[in-house]
Every structure is written in C-alpha cells, then in structure tokens.
C-alpha cells in the first residue's frame, strides 16, 4: 500500500505493507543506506533515526506509525547545529573504527545533547547504553560527545 | 570513496584520464612502472594526470586502519600531505596483492597488514618519488640530488612545480630497481600523532559504503533457511505460506543441501518469507551434543596423558620437580565457545556481467578464498572472476573462513538461478549467532611448583580443545608434528624464562565449526599464563610485577627486554600499588603477533554486588607506530573486545543447536562497562608488528587478577558472570 513519509524535510510516497519496519523502507525503498541493520530487535542501536527529534530504533518502528512524523536520518543530521557539532567532534577525535554502528551513535549523541547540553560521563553512559559498538570505541564516543558539547558552547 | 569493480576497469579509467604514472611490482617481484595497460602490471601507487595520488590498498578495512596506514607509507615516501593521497581497495590478485606472510594468497589476518606492507608500500612510494624527481631534474636541467618533494611540490632551487606537471614525463621513465627509502629521522607522517584516519568523515555521516549497502539494479535478496543443528540436510520445502508474503519470489534447496535459499524483492520480504518456509530436514548426521558434554570431553582430556608433548619436555622430570616443590599451585581453566558477532551481519552480493564474468561485492578479508571457490562453482577461469572489496563492518576473524563459507553460500545461491538478476545474500543477527563459526572451547590444566625462595621449579601445562587449523587449507602452515600452533601459542614460546616447562596438547573431537577469533589461541593461553603467574607470585609472597620481571631479566634477549619494558611502562603510568581506597589493581603482560602489551586494570566494588572497571592502563610495543592514534584505538578496542567477552558471553549448545539468538542473550560490551582506558606506546625503531589483536590477550587476565586482588576470588572458568562475579 502507498504511504507518505516526511523524511529529511522531503515528502516521499512509498509502497510498503503495514507492519514493515521503518528501517527497511529507509534502506531498501528510499535507498538511504546510512541507517544500518545490526540486530533487528532494538538491542544494538545501529538503526537509530530521529522521529520528531527523538532517537528511535527504526528496526522496531512500523512504517505506518510514523506517517505523520518528521523523520531525520544520518544523511541529514549534519544540517542541524548539534548534528554538525557531533560529526565535527567525531572526525577530530577519530571516534570510528569499522564505523558500522556510528550512524546510530551519532544520532543518539545528537538526541542526548539536544536534551542535555553538558552531560557528565555518567549521563553519557546512561543515555548511550543501548548503542552497541563491537569495536569498543566507547572511550572516544564519550569524549566525542563532550567535545561536541564544547563546540556548541563556544 | 571510489568503488573499483575490476582491475581492468580501474586501469582503463586511469589511462582515459590522460598521462598517468603507475608504480607497483611485476609478478616477478621487481618494481615496475608503466603508463599502459598490461597484463603483468599491477600498481600500488597511481598518479593521475591531474596529480591525484591514489594508494591501492591490498588489505580490507574493518576498522583496524589499513586505509589510513598504507596511504601513510606512500605519502611519506613521495613527500605528500595526507590530504593529497586517496585510497582504493585492490582487486583480487593473489600473485600481486598477496599478503607477503601468507604466500601467494591475498588476505588480512594475524595482525599482519602493516607488518607485511611496511617495506613493499614504502618501496612503491619511493620509486614514484625518484621517477618524479628524475623527470623534474631533466625538465629543469638540474641534478637529481638537488630536487626534493615536499607536500606535493617538487622543488629545486628557484624551480617549483606541483607533481602533476611531471607525471607525464615521469611515466616515460624506468622504475628504479632499488629506490632509497627515507630514514626514520626524515619521517613526517609515519609516527605523527596528528595524522587522522582517512575514513572518519564518511563513517560519521552515513556515506560510507559497506557491502550491506550495495543495491544493484534488479537485485534479489536471498536468505538461507538453515538447519537448527549443523550438519542437517534440506530434503524439501513447502513455501505455501511464504507465497502470501508480498515480494517473495521463490525458494531453492542449495546444491549441497546445507539449506534452502529464499529469494525476495527486498530484505523485509525475505525475512518474512523465510520465517514462513517449512523445510523437511534429514538430521541423521547433524550435531546432537550439548555444550556440557563438550566441556566434559575437554576436562577428561586434561586428566589424561596428552597426545602431543609440544616442547619435547622431560615430563617425568618436570612432574617430579613439582612433586618435590615447597609449594604447588594447581588450577584447571575452562573457556567456552564464543561468537565473533561483527556489527555488520555477514552478506555479499554476486552478479554476472554481460561478458559472462562473475563479480562478487564483499567486505572481503581473504579474497583468494572465494576467488578459488568460484572457479569451481561457476566453472570459470580465474580471470573471469572479480572481487570488489568494500568496507567491512567489523570481523574479529569471522570474515576469513578457510572454506569461504558465506561467499560459497552466495555462489551456490546464485548458481541455481538463471543469473539474470544479481543476488544479495543477507544474514540476520540470528543467522550470525546461531549458524556461525566460533572460538573453540578450550581447557587448560596447570601445575606450578615453587621452591622455598619462591622461585618456579616446574610448570606443567596441559591444553585440550578443538583444533582450528586441522582439516583446512591452513593446516600445512600452522600444524607441525601434529601440533596446531594456534592451540598453544603464547605458552612455551612466551618470552618468560620459566624453568621446567612441560607443555602437552590434546585435540578434542569436532564439536562445531571453529575459527580464529581476535588473537586466536592467545585468547585462552594469555589468560591461563597470566593468572597463573599472579597466583604463583601470591603463593611466593612476591609482588606480581617484580615476580614477572624476575622471569624477564635477561637484557641481552630482546624478547625479554621488550616485554619487561612494556610491563614497566604500564606499571609506571598506572600508578601501580597506589590505587585509591576501595580499589585494587591487576596486571598482565603478553606477547602476540610480534607485539608486546601490558595492561593494568583497576577495579572497585565486590563480586557479589558488582565489580566496576574503573580504569585500564595499557602499554604497547608494536615497533614503529605508523599511525599512533590508530594504534591507541586498536588497543582500546582490543581491550574492550577481550574484557566484554570474559565478563558475560558464551555460546552454548543444546542438542547441537546454539542456544543464543541475538544480542539480548549475547550481551555486547556497553559504554558504561569500562570507565576509562589510557594507552601508552613505547618509542621504537623496530619494524612495525601487529596491533589489531595484541591488545586483547592481556585484558582479561589483568581483569581477573584485579578481581582476585580485590576480593580473593580467582575466576578460572568463563564467563565471569556465570562463575560468581557480577558487574555494575
């Protein structure tokens, strides 16, 4: 069935069955591959997108439930001031290794800084708990969030 | 990033751009340069007419850094800034892009990417530099010794020009046979902490293309329905319910009956259609054992005489010395099966081109494996098969199987179609967890005798587990006199001078498919060695650092000297012995893949209410650290990988089937698990050695030793969370 999605500021009409996870519509139909498939059960965070500004696991979000929402993916988060600061911090500190989880890490980090501009290490750990990184770049993710916070404060 | 689909295509593209300079090696190993497309010529360095320099990277990038490291070597030798060099992954060609340590085989593993490329890539860069300099010297009528290249600018006196002005002239010259390599003192990029990863930006903004991100026109998605237990064979299937899934195409039993391929228009349809598929299996030959049976077999083997006397020791004499010792420490260790669980689930895409070539798009760790397998599957000569290596979302060993498992699966999935549509084979996380290859379970039994002065008088060590290498193409490489070196590496060949070492090994029967897992045998040998060293020090009433140094006292032995040096550096940086109240420290040091790593783990809390890992301090000697920040990152990651698994992960089997499904029951390390990691690199003028794996082996024993120091609990069976130690 035809559905209308507002994604990255544009309106898209997609053909998807009800119950289809948003992740697969984004990846397979809209061909935006920055949003990653990691586990399919919302336990790794690689598929994180923003739905009305809230970090959301797209692998466990039915497409029909977000028809009226504003969806943002990694491809557009750099247009946002916080998103740009996080991406700048990620490059400055070379946070990434394999990089496969990092779209989700960036999306969650933006969510955190949106509600808490100056998070402590403990607050970062609590907020980012659901974003797994098998390369264990966590030390740099923590530093990256703090660096982005500094960039935004400057 | 440019995606290079074939060597021919890349060479044609280069030539079409006008004058180019290509420097590499011919199949006879000599340095060569050309401007023309020739069969025997394959470059490491490409310089386009516009002066763009591209490093052709023969190792795949799974995060460990060759897409930065190999360009660094070339940029250093030519005289470029890092922003003046690009990279492309090499095509599959085991004669030219082989791992020099693997023979005629292209592949990444054993932490060898930098070690085997160190001279080769510098030579290629140096040859390009000398050719550009010779061309400029001719053009300006000056002596070559007066010409330099810095930051991409060729200079001689008042003359100055960007590289592009001399690419055409340089490309007409013969490549120098032995170009001069720069001295350590001339390095500006190698060892420079300011050099950044070349793949950071694209991995932070969603532009990076992994194999999972391929979307070829008209492609089908394929998933495989596999038996619950390994060894089951598909007989037939009923897809009547699958047909109700919109986007389902069809299904086919694989030619080897290892499963049923389900084809669909998109990934979600494939997932649903596969779930709905009913398969009749022949389970007669399938694995039926439980993991407790496997464990019992291993423990029984430890109590029997070992099959192999690995270090040809006088076992009776060692045993007698221990019997007569003042103190004896005896421990039995058990290490469970572990999954690799790279973040990007396994996948690859295969297509047939108009001229009948087969092209595989893959985060390919050992391209030679599928390249050879596809010659059989498709009945084609090697030159009709191309492999496009893409970024890989982690591996930890999993993407390199001796039987090229998932690429062969993709080949079989494709060969049964009419090949008119590309097929993208996708594994889910559950496929990865339940149908994979595992770090084999291992047991160790160790008896150490101490004299009345606290000196070791005998170390009797038995190892039992399933061999990784036997029965694979790597057997001749890794198995000698029956001993699979990967089962026992890091024990008798440790730099420690241990009197009276007797090492025995018994292979246990095949339990499941096993595979190297980040740091291979060192995952269990380092844990055993380093926690036993601690227990021995404790029994001797000696400081664990001093006790280790006493076995690394021979300064004339570089192995002992370098191992002692990392130990001392880690101890100094960690403030050994000065942990804040309520905390305790543990130390471990281990050599693997040519590198030395020592770690101090500091913990608080207690095993019952929860241990907290406050800090890990690491010192590493990996020879010259080409990209120091990449080395630090690899240590950080290696530590996290090692600690995360010993904390709480294991793969168990019931009736031959894996019990774990996904991350909720194979919980990965999370951001809050390790509060801080601090890495220090020993300055060195030695050639580079491994960094991808050496950070992992000492991490788990250092944690175990810290927990023991804090609480008196020594964990000899893993994972810790299942054996009396909780974490917060």
UniProtKB/TrEMBL annotation, chain A:
This is (2Fe-2S)-binding protein. The keyword Oxidoreductase applies. It comes from the Bacteria. The lineage of its organism: Bacteria, Pseudomonadati, Pseudomonadota, Alphaproteobacteria, Rhodobacterales. Residues 1-77 form the 2Fe-2S ferredoxin-type domain. Keywords: 2Fe-2S, Iron, Iron-sulfur, Metal-binding, Oxidoreductase. PROSITE patterns: 2FE2S_FER_1, 2FE2S_FER_2. PANTHER family: BLR6218 PROTEIN, OXIDOREDUCTASE WITH IRON-SULFUR SUBUNIT. The keyword Isomerase does not apply.
TrEMBL record, chain B:
This is Xanthine dehydrogenase family protein molybdopterin-binding subunit. It comes from Ruegeria haliotis. Residues 1-32 form the signal peptide. The keyword Signal applies. InterPro entries: Ald_Oxase/Xan_DH_a/b, Ald_Oxase/Xan_DH_a/b_sf, AldOxase/xan_DH_MoCoBD1, AldOxase/xan_DH_MoCoBD2, AldOxase/xan_DH_Mopterin-bd_sf, N-heterocyclic_Hydroxylase, OxRdtase_Mopterin-bd_su_IorB, TAT_signal. Keywords: Signal. SMART domains: Ald_Xan_dh_C. Transmembrane segments: none annotated. The keyword Lipoprotein does not apply. Residues 205-285 form the Aldehyde oxidase/xanthine dehydrogenase a/b hammerhead domain. It comes from the Bacteria. NCBIfam families: TAT_signal_seq.
């Amino acid at each position: 069935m035809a559905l209308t999605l507002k994604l990255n500021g544009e309106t898209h009409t997609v053909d998807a069955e009800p119950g289809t996870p948003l992740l697969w519509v984004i990846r397979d139909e809209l061909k935006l591959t920055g949003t990653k498939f990691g586990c399919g059960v919302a336990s790794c965070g690689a598929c994180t997108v923003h739905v009305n500004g809230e970090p959301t696991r797209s692998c466990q979000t039915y497409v029909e439930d977000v028809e009226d929402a504003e969806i943002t993916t990694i491809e557009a988060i750099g247009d946002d001031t916080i998103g740009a600061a996080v991406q700048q911090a990620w490059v400055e500190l070379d946070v990434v290794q394999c990089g496969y989880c990092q779209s989700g890490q960036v999306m969650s980090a933006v969510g955190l800084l949106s509600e808490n501009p100056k998070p402590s290490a403990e607050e970062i750990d609590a907020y980012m708990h659901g974003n797994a990184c098998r390369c264990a770049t966590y030390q740099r993710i923590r530093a990256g969030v703090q660096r982005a916070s500094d960039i935004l404060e400057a | 990033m440019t995606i290079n689909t074939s060597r021919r295509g890349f060479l044609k593209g280069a030539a079409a751009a006008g004058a180019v300079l290509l420097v590499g090696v011919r199949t006879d190993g000599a340095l060569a340069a050309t401007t023309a497309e020739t069969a025997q010529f394959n470059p490491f360095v490409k310089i386009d007419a516009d002066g763009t320099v591209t490093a052709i990277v023969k190792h795949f990038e799974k995060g460990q850094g060759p897409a930065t490291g190999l360009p660094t070597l070339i940029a250093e030798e030519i005289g470029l800034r890092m922003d003046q060099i690009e990279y492309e992954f090499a095509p599959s060609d085991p004669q030219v892009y082989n791992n020099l340590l693997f023979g005629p085989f292209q592949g990444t593993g054993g932490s060898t990417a930098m070690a085997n490329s160190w001279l080769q890539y510098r030579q290629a860069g140096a040859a390009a530099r000398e050719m550009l300099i010779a061309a400029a010297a001719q053009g300006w009528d000056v002596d070559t010794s007066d010409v330099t290249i810095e930051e991409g600018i060729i200079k001689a006196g008042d003359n100055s020009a960007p590289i592009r002005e001399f690419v055409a002239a340089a490309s007409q010259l013969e490549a120098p046979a032995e170009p001069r390599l720069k001295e350590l003192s001339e390095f500006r990029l190698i060892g420079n902490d300011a050099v950044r990863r070349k793949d950071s930006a694209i991995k932070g903004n969603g532009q990076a293309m992994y194999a999972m991100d391929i979307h070829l026109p008209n492609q089908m998605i394929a998933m495989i329905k596999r038996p619950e237990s390994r060894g089951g064979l598909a007989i037939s299937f009923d897809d009547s319910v699958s047909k109700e899934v919109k986007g389902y195409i069809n299904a086919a039993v694989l030619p080897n009956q290892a499963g049923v391929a389900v084809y669909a228009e998109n990934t979600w349809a494939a997932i649903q259609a596969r779930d709905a598929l009913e398969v009749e299996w022949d389970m007669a030959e399938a694995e039926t054992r439980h993991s407790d049976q496997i464990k019992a077999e291993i423990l029984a083997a430890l109590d029997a005489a070992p099959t192999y006397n690995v270090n040809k020791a006088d076992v009776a004499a060692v045993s007698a010395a221990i019997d007569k010792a003042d103190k004896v420490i005896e421990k039995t260790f058990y290490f469970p099966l572990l999954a690799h669980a790279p973040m990007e689930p396994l996948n690859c895409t295969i297509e047939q081109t108009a001229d009948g070539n087969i092209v595989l798009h893959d985060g390919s760790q050992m391209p030679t494996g599928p390249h050879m397998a596809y010659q059989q599957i498709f009945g084609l000569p090697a030159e009709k098969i191309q492999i496009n290596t893409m970024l890989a979302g982690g591996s930890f060993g999993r993407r390199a199987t001796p039987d090229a498992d998932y690429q062969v699966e993709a080949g079989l999935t494709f060969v049964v179609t009419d090949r008119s549509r590309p097929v993208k084979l996708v594994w889910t996380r559950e496929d990865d967890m339940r149908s994979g290859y595992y770090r084999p379970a291992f047991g160790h039994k160790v008896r150490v005798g101490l004299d009345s002065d606290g000196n070791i008088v005998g170390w009797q060590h038995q190892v039992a587990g399933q061999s990784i290498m036997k029965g694979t193409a790597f057997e001749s490489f890794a198995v000698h006199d029956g001993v699979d070196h990967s089962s026992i590496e890091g024990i008798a060949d440790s730099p420690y001078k241990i009197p009276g070492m007797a090492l025995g090994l018994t292979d246990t029967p095949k339990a499941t498919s096993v595979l190297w897992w980040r740091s291979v045998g060192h995952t269990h040998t380092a844990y055993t060695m380093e926690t036993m060293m601690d227990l021995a020090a404790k029994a001797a009433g000696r400081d664990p650092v001093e006790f280790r140094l006493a076995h690394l006292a021979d300064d004339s032995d570089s192995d002992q000297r370098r191992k002692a040096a990392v130990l001392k550096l880690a101890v100094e940086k960690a403030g050994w012995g000065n942990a804040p109240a309520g905390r305790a420290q543990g130390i471990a040091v281990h050599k693997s893949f040519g590198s030395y790593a020592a770690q101090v783990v500091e913990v608080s809390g207690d095993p019952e209410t929860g241990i907290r890992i406050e800090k890990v301090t690491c010192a590493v000697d990996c020879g010259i650290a080409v990209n120091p920040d990449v080395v630090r990152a690899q240590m950080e990651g290696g530590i996290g990988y090692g600690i995360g698994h010993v904390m709480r992960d294991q793969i168990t089997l019931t009736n031959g089937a894996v019990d774990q499904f996904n991350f909720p029951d194979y919980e990965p390390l999370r951001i809050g698990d390790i509060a801080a990691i601090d890495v220090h690199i020993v300055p060195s003028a030695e050639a580079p050695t491994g960094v991808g794996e050496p950070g992992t082996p000492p991490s788990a024993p250092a944690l175990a030793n810290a927990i023991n120091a804090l609480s008196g609990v020594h964990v000899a069976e893993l994972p810790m969370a299942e054996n009396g130690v909780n974490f917060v």
